[in-house]
Amino acid sequence: MSEIVLEGVTKTFADGFEAVKGMDLDIQDGEFMILVGPSGCGKSTALRMIAGLEDISSGELKIGGETVNDRSPKDRDIAMVFQNYALYPHMTVRENMGFALKLAGADKEEINKKVEEAARTLDLEQHLDRRPANLSGGQRQRVAMGRAIVRDPKAFLMDEPLSNLDAKLRVQMRTEVARLQSKLETTTVYVTHDQTEAMTLGDRVAVMRAGVLQQVGTPAELYDNPRNLFVAGFIGSPAMNFMPGELSGGKLKLPIGEVDAGPLGIERDDGTIVAGLRPENFEDVEVIGDLKEERGIVFEAEIDLVESLGSDLYAYFHIESAGVQSDQLADLVEESLEETGAGASTSEGREQIVARLDPTSKVRRREHAQLWADTSKLHLFDPESGDNLRTK
Amino acid sequence: MERSSRDYALWTIAIALVVIFALIPVLWLISISLKPPEALTDQSFIPKSVSFDNYKSLFEGGIDGSPFIKPLINSIGIALITTAISIVLASFCAYAIARLEFPGKRVILAGALAIAMFPPISTVGPLFDMWRALGLYDTWLGLIIPYLTFSLPLAIYVLVAFFREIPWELEQAAQVDGATPFQAFTKVIVPLAAPGVFTAAILVFIFCWNDFLFAISLTSSDASRTVPAALAFFTGESSFTAPTGSIAAAAVVVTVPIIVFVLFFQRRIVAGLTAGAVKG
Amino acid sequence: MSVNVPANPAPPKSAPKASSRTRSERKLAWMLCAPAVLAMLLVTAYPIAYAVVLSLQDVDLRFPDEGGFAGLSNYSSVLSSSLWWTDIFNTVFIMVISVAIELVLGMAIALVMHRAIFGRGVVRTSVLIPYGIITVVAAFAWQFAFSPETGFVNNLPLISDEMDWFGGRFSSFAVIILAEVWKTTPFMALLLLAGLVTIDDQLYEAARVDGASAWQRFTRITLPLMKPAILVALLFRTLDAFRVFDTIFVMTRGALDTESVSILGYNQLISRLNLGLGSAVSVLIFLCVFLIAFIFVKGFGAKVEEGRPS
């Protein structure tokens, strides 16, 4: 059995910085668990603690039922794939893959057998006697995986293994990794900052922020029922749109219009809240039938930008609002600014919204359009704590 | 890895060993230099009584009489002049190599390397002869020239390594921002190059300060004899006593500034040596 | 509005104007390099050529009137002299032993400099002191330390009080080697450090996960990856060691058969003023150095491309 269990695991560095705070996580045997979050959220540190490359300040780590806090990496029977692959430059692919077995004292025949088997699985057979310097990025990545597979460990630990590949290769390797894992059925803990990878690869996904685990669940759970603002904004691309809302007199006032608060099913006093709506919950009024008008709000907006992708159409527009104040939101903005240089603009009393419309929609840039928002799909959050008010 | 107190203890021992290794001769020299002449044979590492006689005898007799002052002046002067010229020449050369495209780059670097590996002894004979013929024997210039030759490879390597790190596009950026080429060079490039130049200067200075072979071969009197050579010819208080004490005192006088120097610039020196390591 | 940006000397382009630009770039480059190159050649190319000439003549400054072409007789005198071969032995002996010790010690110090969790500045300063000290000064210090009457070494517990270090050939060698090692280990350590820092830390982590102990990490990862740096360090230090002069001169003046080839050269040239013989010695030393360099670069594959280790 090779479940991995973290109980209250905390990592405090020498300078007092708490990288991971009291993390509880149960990873099942054979599960593909993803740790995802923005840079600095502690996911790599958590992974390294599981590997034994970082000491655990407090809490317990169990692998296969045994507490392994004080065990050195080699005694934990885990294999790691590093972001930069960490291939030994002076050894051939064969030697790289066989290194751990050699250290463990296996005989040459056995090593060769296992190395060749792994090479076959990863399509590396013709590269076995070459050096890493002569391989392409994708090939190196596979060698790094091969090194892990050969050991037949209790768990694979992968630290952003695909982030050094170009976009196209990344997508390709993603499916490779998924296929491999399901074939080998080895427990896998995979760290990434890319939420698309997280959503497509994992059985379950653990979202982290500033050292604290925000939510663990299947991709669908995280998408449909995010526990707080951060998870809601982090998962999903394009990201969820946020706007301030005012609850008063049984009604919820949003920049785009008003809805009855009743059907939303929240228990809350009057006051401000943050409302979130995913891009796909908007539509061009021209395209939808009259039926839907009952379930949502129709409003007018001036379209700033239209991105036509063939199968989808994204319309960017802005609404007047006082802006949304929230720590979690600030984190998200920072993160997306780092990634793309663009972000949800929340300045100067304007909020930018992106809507995914039917490709046949005729909205045009700098023209006003009538849009509809499906308010039954609204997510509502407490501005201070960020908690989702509609889930319990 | 958590730092256990055991780790700290082990590292302290390791570092202490290195420090002791490095300092034994220095401390020993200081010890001898502070011993009064009678106590020289007491074989103890730490002087039992302290006297500054040795230091006094060094400077007795003023510039012409003391066996030490003139050589000290020679050492300082020759080292400074060589350093200045060497750095200027090496900077030009290194600038060209780091920045411009031209054939012969490799040849120059390889040649410099070859010179660094050269046995100076092989040049002493001819130089001795040449200098006597040219009247350069026993002059400052007679030492400056070979020092220049043998310090240039070191300076060029260090400077090339540093210059390669400079982002030259900044010069263009400055010009786009409105600077003249000259302003761009002086206000942007020069400050960036300064640390490397400084490091190279330190290394060249140490090289000149240190030389012994040329100093004893190409000089014969205080006119240009530098400290290392002078030390080999020191006499003691009388013709019967060994000059141990005065040598030790002289040694301390020329070493302590180097130590202070090294203390302040250790980071730079290590950076320079590891960047362009050639002959020490 | 257009801005006139003076062009930087750039790699040649394919426009017809480029060749004049490249030409002027080249001209500038050569002009900049010329003074340095001249200075370097002046004291090496010319003297070595002159030394070769001198070596083929019978030039003894004590007898300026005698002289004339001597052909290779100087060389045969040198090569048939037992003193020359003794000195070669001495030089190689000192060279091999000191370089071997320096390699091990230097490696240890380089590791300390690389991995120390505190006190890096202290270590760096300490390591540079032997580098900065004048060689003869250090030689004096060690000489005094080991001299029977004044030194503290004989006072030390395990060493006999009457040990006359400079009275015997191999005990003198011991002190000479100690002094040499002390002086130049730091430089070796720095050269090795330059190689150490190029090794990616993650390789060590991967090795830890693969199950390697600290010693295994050192022998299977660090050493193989440092091979280029080690070779370059060995090359430089061996060449340096072959030229040993200052230390021996101060400690024994070469007495008791501790002379090195450089001292032999000095004695012939400067003391005896026999320029012919002395020059022959010089040229032979030059050839030996060349041979050593050749062995290292071609034989061991030391990569000294542009002077940077690895």
The gyration radius over C-alpha positions of chain A equals: 24 Å
The CATH architecture of the largest domain in chain C would be Orthogonal Bundle
Number of strands of chain A: 20
Could you tell me the strand content of chain A as a percent range?
A: 25-35%
Draw up the topology in text.
The complex is a heterotrimer of chains A (392), B (280) and C (310).
Chain A: E1 4-12, E2 18-27, E3 32-36, H1 43-51, E4 58-63, E5 66-67, E6 78-81, H2 93-103, H3 108-122, H4 137-149, E7 155-159, H5 167-184, E8 187-192, H6 195-201, E9 204-209, E10 212-217, H7 219-224, H8 229-234, E11 241-248, E12 251-254, E13 257-260, E14 271-277, E15 282-284, E16 296-308, E17 313-320, H9 327-340, E18 350-357, E19 368-374, E20 379-381
Helix pairs in contact in A: 2-3, 2-4, 3-4
Chain B: H1 5-34, H2 53-59, H3 62-65, H4 69-99, H5 105-116, H6 121-134, H7 140-164, H8 169-176, H9 181-210, H10 213-217, H11 227-232, H12 244-275
Helix pairs in contact in B: 1-12, 2-12, 4-7, 4-9, 5-7, 7-9, 8-9, 9-12
Chain C: H1 18-42, H2 45-55, H3 73-80, H4 82-115, H5 120-132, H6 135-146, H7 169-196, H8 201-210, H9 214-242, H10 246-251, H11 261-271, H12 275-299
Helix pairs in contact in C: 2-12, 3-12, 4-5, 4-7, 4-9, 5-7, 6-7, 7-9, 9-12, 11-12
Write a brief caption for the model.
The complex is a heterotrimer of chains A (392), B (280) and C (310). Chain B is built from twelve helices and no strands.
